[in-house]
Design a protein that fits this description.
This protein is α/β, with parallel strands linked by helices and 378 residues long. The protein is 39% helix and 21% strand. The two termini are 34 Å apart. Bound molecules: magnesium ion (MG). Magnesium ion (MG) binds next to loops.
Length: 378
């Protein structure tokens, strides 16, 4: 127990435009839509967390802002912020779904607890295994010539991992892009492919076998999230490792996917699982089944990326890196007080107590459409 009490929750709804529209098979995305959760204590501390839903994947901004404002607010006002598991267990009991809102709440509690303890979140959740994580950039511009220019600049900045988003053009376009990247960058490039559920299950194996010549490190979520038997069949049939993203949201999904070996890799995302600590539980299930994990993300600001960096620092085995590139390479603006720490192709794990960042008040005001407080909406 601590002698701090939470007295206010504020939810800031923000939209930050992207430099270019990205196509992800299951939808085009032109910016980051986030509900930022700010918790304030009677001692004057402020903790932050982020919910950045994607309607075709996890949920809506409106739904998650309401989840925080109406349903989760009563779970934290007057409570001691260090009671993270009791508060989150209650949050899961009073509200089904909305894992992004729960992730935002948990992150804000961890941020406060870290400031009280004088420890970064990575240490609070077990301690860091590494200080930096190799960064993957997603190749997702329908205009591949523009993408090639971006890739060139990002390559020069030290990034060596590239994930091709597919499903917005035909199979020949995907093969052409892979061939081109292998030709230009040779074996130094680490290539992955994310179908975002875009392949037809009846014909998926043949498509994936065509990719193997270009030596991808993994193929992500080839079929629809509910086609889990097909996903398991694909995983057995092809040599390239298969990653589950949309098919593994929470601990229950992970248990089932591990028991039936539906994939070789799970993509961890706090927004899918309801927070950093639930992701660590999923990673433990994966580890016990010989399944690798990967640091995935949604369309997020550097606040959620920071939470992801703390999470992935605390994972024992990590060979595939993370994709926390949005605030550096995708968004028009990084709203945090300090730029998200990407250099030499790596994300550098924060060392400040708590989350280690906060929104800049002026940037927040510039991109904010609404603020929800204890008193109501303004
Ligand atoms: Mg994915």
């Amino acid at each position: 127990m601590s002698d701090h009490r939470i007295i206010e929750m504020r939810i800031h709804c923000v939209t930050i435009p992207a430099k270019t529209v990205h196509s992800h098979g299951s939808g085009d995305v032109g910016g980051i839509n986030a509900a930022l959760c700010e918790l304030i204590t009677d001692s004057g501390l402020t903790g932050w967390g982020e919910a950045s839903p994607w309607p075709v994947f996890t949920g809506t901004l409106e739904g998650n802002a309401a989840a925080l404002h109406v349903h989760l607010r009563p779970q934290v006002i007057g409570r001691d912020p260090v009671l993270i598991e009791p508060i989150m267990t209650n949050a899961e009991r009073v509200l089904v779904g909305h894992p992004e809102a729960k992730a935002a709440l948990e992150c804000a509690l961890l941020d406060l607890t870290g400031q009280i303890a004088g420890l970064p979140i990575a240490e609070l959740v077990g301690g860091r295994h590494r200080d930096s994580i190799p960064l993957s950039f997603s190749v997702a511009n329908p205009d591949f010539d523009a993408d090639l220019e971006d890739i060139g600049a990002i390559w020069d900045s030290g990034v060596r991992i590239f994930k091709l988003k597919t499903g917005f053009a035909d199979h020949a376009f995907d093969l052409m892009r892979l061939e081109k990247l292998r030709h230009v960058y040779g074996d130094e490039a680490r290539l992955r492919i994310d179908y975002n559920q875009g392949l037809a299950a009846f014909d998926a194996i043949r498509h994936i076998r065509d990719l193997e010549a270009f030596r991808p490190e993994f193929v992500e979520q080839p079929v629809r999230m509910f086609e889990r038997e097909a996903l398991a069949e694909i995983t057995r049939a092809v040599d390239v490792p298969i990653m589950a993203d949309e098919s593994v949201f929470d601990v229950r999904d992970a248990t089932r996917a591990a028991a039936h070996r539906m994939a070789d890799i799970f993509s961890l995302k706090t927004a899918k699982s309801g927070g950093i600590r639930r992701c660590i539980e999923i990673a433990a299930i994966a580890r016990s089944a010989g399944i690798e994990v990967y640091g995935g993300c949604m369309f997020e600001t550097s606040l959620a990326h920071m939470a992801g960096a703390h999470l992935m620092a605390a994972i024992p085995n990590l060979t595939l890196g993370c994709e926390f590139y949005m605030s550096t390479y995708y968004a028009q603006d990084d709203i945090a007080t300090h730029p998200f720490p990407v250099f030499d192709g790596h994300v550098h794990v924060p060392v400040l107590p708590g989350l280690g960042t906060a929104p800049d008040p002026e940037a927040l005001a510039r991109y904010r459409s609404q603020i929800l407080t204890n008193e109501g909406a303004t």
